[in-house]
Design a protein that fits this description.
The chain is an alpha/beta fold. It has one domain: Rossmann fold (3-Layer(aba) Sandwich), CATH 3.40.50. It is built from 13 helices and five strands. The longest helix is centred in the N-terminal third of the chain and has 27 residues. The mean pLDDT is 97. Bound molecules: adenosine monophosphate and magnesium ion. The site of adenosine monophosphate has 11 residues, from helix 6. Adenosine monophosphate binds next to helix 6.
Length: 281
Amino acid sequence: MVKHWSVPVTEALKADGLRIAELATSSTPGFTGDKKLAQELLTERGKALSVLQEKLYANGRSGDRRSVLLVLQGMDTAGKGGIVRHVIGSVDPQGVDHAAFGVPTEEERRHHYLWRIRKALPRGGQLGVFDRSHYEDVLVVRVHELVPRAEWEPRYDEINQFEREMTREGITLVKVAMFVSLDEQKKRLRQRLERQDKYWKFNPSDIDERAYWPAYLEAYQAMVDRTSTADAPWYVLPADHKWYARLAVTELLIDALEKLKLDWPPANFDVAEELRRLDQS
Ligand code: AMP
Ligand code: MG
């Protein structure tokens, strides 16, 4: 058992049977400590994550095709950017493959919705991060009926199939759906309007989107119910406490990397011989 966790994070955040509309967004499932401890642990566990990621990268350089892909979903202000900065920020950037998905460009719209996703999949050895993903195509698209139901409805099965292929090709998916309360979102949006250094994160449409909150919760529920699979389960993350969300995602990534049973790649040269040559050089 990981220190200061009463159950493994993968159990604590499991989506099975969970009613997202009833989620206590300020809860800290499985974690027995407080904010101060969580912040200390984030540093300590960030170092553990960093070593594991370096092993993944080293193996990738030696031809291992496996990779890990963190998929972050969540409404505006849920803290996706904070995860990228504070969790992914603790590892070596050369092994990170980050992609953010916004409103599709004109070119992207001419293609199948998975086209831009396929192009961004992590290569062997990489820790991929998706800030939003193919799931927008059953979230914002469903909520605003950007395409008719007959078009988005089959996407759940299609996404499951797509992710099965990814898994087969060596990508370990870590799918995290982050939730703050409507009140917490209001606070965070207010901050974006009160601080000059946060204006860049604000989009006036974020306020309009608040009216669609119940529709989003419904769409998120359908997403989790229909695309949580044995190989690629969803984790539902209460995110009012940033310190908890960041620590929890760190633990989820550590868990995924540990399951790869990575070791340092062996030398593909004769170490003793090279030492002898070095001495003589
Ligand atoms: P942000 O993450 O704040 O930069 O915002 C990106 C915006 O792009 C969000 O409002 C998303 O809902 C929107 N978005 C992402 N993917 C799609 C998509 N496939 N179709 C329509 N809007 C999307
Ligand atoms: Mg935004």
